[in-house]
Amino acid sequence: MSKTDKHKRKSQTKPSSSKAIILSPKILPVWLIIVIFALTTIIYFWGQLSGSYFFWEDFAEFIYPTQTFAAVETAGGNIPFWNPFTFAGMPFLADLQNGYFYPFNRLLSLFVTNDGMLPIWILQFIVIIHFFFAQLNMYYLCKKWGTSQIAGIIAALSFAFSLVMVFRSIHPMIIYHLAWFPLVVLIYHKAISTLKLKSAIWAGLILGFTFLSGHPQYTLFLLMFLFFFALWLFVHYLIKQEFTSRKLVKFVFSAIIPVIVSAGIFMIQYLPSQKLADLSQRAEMTYEKASESSMQIKQVMTFISPNFFGQTRPNADFEIPFYLTLSDTSTGKDNAAPYYYYWETAFYLGIIGFILALIGFWFNLKDVRFSFLLFISFLGFLYALGSNGFLHKLFFYLPFFGNFRNPGRLMFYLTFAFSIASAFGFDSLWKLAGNKKLFRSTNSVIGIIIFICLLGILGLWSSVFDTPEKIITLINQKFILPLILSIIFLIVAYFLFKVKLSINIAGLILAVFIFIDLYIVANPFVNSNVNPQNTYKIDNAIIKAFLPQNPDDLFRVNYRSYQPPYTAFLRNQGLVSRFMNIEGYNPLILQRVIPPLNSRDTIHQLYNIKYEIRFNEQNQPYFYERSDRLGYAWIVHNAIITVPDNIENTMRYGGFDYSKTVILEEKLEKTYNSDNDSIQSFIKCLDFGLNYAKYEVQTESDGILCFSEIWYPDWKAYINGSPRNLLRANYCFRAVEIPAGKTIEIKYESSEFFSGMYIAIFVLICSILALIFIKEKDDNGEKLDITKN
């Protein structure tokens, strides 16, 4: 734009009421935009950056220990395919939630301390910087879609600090998906509207690396969003007769290539993860389980008052407990919803952002992008209703959808769409200045919100939704802040309409109050007083006792009791302290982990438990050292063969001595039916690591070598270098037939990993070569006109 044009647009003259007033926002330098987003991120998370507060819940119990384990092993030059430290052994790299291949996660390996710990500050910093990326990406999307800079800032704040984002600080893999999604949508839209192959490849590359961050449900949600976006635009262009045969073909390719590229990159993680998923407890998901954390229609009230149904906080000193109730159709009674429903169904983006979004939709609905955003918002809401609606049940029977819980998470569609609409809503205010009819419509929207808030303050909504008597006053007070902010919005809009306030100043005022609103509402959720790093620090004497000193003295520890309930350490302590145990915390656990036995002693024998938690006469816990454990490996000469469907009954009621007998589920060429105690055998562990073990075995006759490690199909057995079948034994453990006097090696070898790796490398190479060598001309004749109606 020339200087002359700028001066013309800056002039603010007031014509007749039937004409629009000519306004123009002042151009802000890019560096200032970056500084603004950096400052908002620093201010919002100053507690974490200064070391005063910490993320909590899954971040402390799952994210910190798993990322510490991954960082330590990678820093030592190992790829951790297997984790022997929880649940008697679990696949690690195959667990997509660990996000091993996400580039930012691998940066963590550079910060491992000498004592084998991951500093909490760097893990929190990686999470926090994605809020900065989320602002930049949303701002960039809105700017490229035609909004003013100040409108882009408003959308960026509404999105990045919405409850959908902030509450996911305890699940960083979701943050990583959402932070990059605005950029993906922008480049994907560019690809299918300009029909440029390079844009399609770039969208696929960014999307692929986003998928590697490790949340399969959001991976599915993002792909579904892009599918409907492409389909919506396809129908639009088809109706408007924008397609020639050439354009139609290029459109299809532009829409599909990002999916192919992202899927190809994702294969390095997807193929091993799918194998694990098929063997996990998630493979048997019921609809009742899948519909957990369903939205309720009455929760639309949280558009205006996000804590209307109470709140969940990391510390115990918050004022309003979460009191949402769920109807039990079997009993006809209302039960309290679990505490995690609070964050699983949250979607607030600020009352000012909400009002601006309504205005944005109202004035821009003829734009095909906004008709789509309205559609996808409605789709997300219907799906989020879960068991309280119909759409989730239909999707449940589609591939992949039936593997996930928490339908309320799809409210992110609505937050994402409304954040974009808020930018266009602000631009509508100043572009339509002087149009009294349209301004009255804006005032009507604000007036309705103010009226709802007044009714809330007077207690109407508390009575309608059966708020508990003791917190009614507090709940009613929660409408004061949205009321004040709505009035501020009305004042700013009035002065903007009267041209007594510049566009940039008006926008900055609204942006500041959006930030303040979201800070007050959501910031306390992320502020735990407990440092996760410190909670995993235990006495060195305990670590020395629980840590095997050599590979020939391997054992496990049991430090959790269910009757009475007691836990000596955190569930994933083993991942940090490096001692092997049968405890753990992982949403994706194998179906077969605990042998189906009635005797706790026998279970612990099979697990090779050396130390177990017990209670004295005063009911005080202590660690008891067992002397009857079977060891990490032992040889038997008697095998009982049963079918998989009967394995549980066979073990539970058989009364076998597992030091002499093994229960198998596949027939062997040789029969083993001897329980002779006089057969001499010798086993020595020569080497033991995450992905490899080597044993020297001597026995007077052929037998079956049993292990206390969990069976998984990627473990392979080799005897003197020749492959042997690694059997699933005693329901969930490993065994292998062993001739007399041999050396046996057990290796983790995942064919799925290598297949996925080769596919990912091939796709990356092809994508890079395409970006380098493909030449594309800027041909306006090839573009599809999105504004044509």
Search tags:
789 residues; alpha+beta; 5-stranded antiparallel sheet; 4-stranded antiparallel sheet; 12% strand; disordered N terminus
Any chance you could write out the topology, listing elements then pairs?
Layout: H1 3-10, H2 30-44, H3 46-49, H4 58-75, E1 82-83, E2 90-91, H5 103-107, H6 120-144, H7 149-160, H8 163-166, H9 172-194, H10 197-211, H11 216-239, H12 245-278, H13 287-290, E3 325-328, E4 333-336, H14 341-344, H15 351-364, H16 368-384, H17 391-396, H18 411-431, H19 436-457, H20 460-464, H21 472-477, H22 480-497, H23 503-522, H24 532-535, H25 540-546, E5 556-558, E6 560-562, E7 565-567, H26 573-577, H27 600-607, E8 609-615, E9 621-625, E10 633-636, E11 638-641, H28 647-654, E12 661-664, E13 681-688, E14 692-699, E15 703-710, E16 715-719, E17 722-724, E18 727-729, E19 733-738, E20 742-748, H29 751-773
Structural overview:
- The chain has 29 helices and 20 strands.
- By secondary structure, it is α+β, with helices and mostly antiparallel strands.
- It has a 5-stranded antiparallel beta sheet with strand order 13-14-20-16-17, with no helix packed on it. Strands 10-15-19-18 form a 4-stranded antiparallel beta sheet, with no helix packed on it.
